[in-house]
Amino acid sequence: MQPPPPRFVPSGDPFPEPWDEEAGAWLVGKYALVGVIFADGDGERLGQYHGRIVSADPADGIAIACEGDCAGDSLVMPPTLGWFGAAQPGEYRLRATGELVVNPDVLSSWRIARDER
């Protein structure tokens, strides 16, 4: 079983990456495939999520309405437009769930490390 989708929690401070309104608007409505490696003191776990991007905002992040195994959940990523790139057409088999995603519009990969102090 994969980890639940991560949720970016805004701090209220401006995010360091410049925001491009046009690029943010372009993302909304696209079908995204997102891979996340969760790293902590116990090792690494892979989460893979897919769904439609429902909003892109410089304060609240990029929200994806998950489909497939995580249907009904939301994945909210930081407002970093440069981390989303165009996907090549084709079939993508998810290692985390075995699901098949066909022709997503955009891809994004992340590594979230928990600092064990």
Short synopsis of the structure:
The protein is mainly beta and about 120 residues long.
Percentage of residues in DSSP E strands: 35-45%
Strand order of the largest sheet: 4-3-2-1-8-5
Total separate domains = 1
Structural class, judged by helices and strands?
Answer: mainly beta
Unreliable spans are none
**How many β-strand runs?**
8
Look at the structure and give the mean pLDDT.
90
Instruction: Report the oligomer.
Output: single chain
Q: How is the main sheet built?
A: 6 strands, mixed
> What's the shape?
globular
Structure report:
The chain has one helix spanning 21-27; strands at 31-40, 43-57, 61-66, 74-77, 85-86, 91-93, 100-102, 106-113. The chain is mainly β and 117 residues long. It has one domain (21-113). It has a 6-stranded mixed β-sheet. It is globular. The protein starts with 20 loop residues before the first helix and ends with a strand.
Pick out its properties.
two-stranded antiparallel ribbon, 6-stranded mixed beta sheet, mainly beta, 117 residues, 6% helix, 1 helix
Topology:
Layout: H1 21-27, E1 31-40, E2 43-57, E3 61-66, E4 74-77, E5 85-86, E6 91-93, E7 100-102, E8 106-113
